[in-house]
Amino acid sequence: MEVTKAIVKRVSIRKWKSDAVEKEKIEAVLEAGRRAPSWGNVQPWRFVVVQDKEKIAKMAEASGGQDVVANAPVVIACCGVTGDFSRKLQRDALKSVIDVGAMEWTDDFLDNVVLESEMFAPYLSGEVAMTIKAAEQIMIAVAYMTIEAVNQDLGTCWVGATSGTEVHRILDLPKSWFVHDLLPMGYANQDPDPRPRKPGKELFFWEKVD
Ligand SMILES: Cc1cc2nc3c(=O)[nH]c(=O)nc-3n(C[C@H](O)[C@H](O)[C@H](O)COP(=O)(O)O)c2cc1C
Question: Whole-model pTM?
Answer without folding.
Answer: 0.97
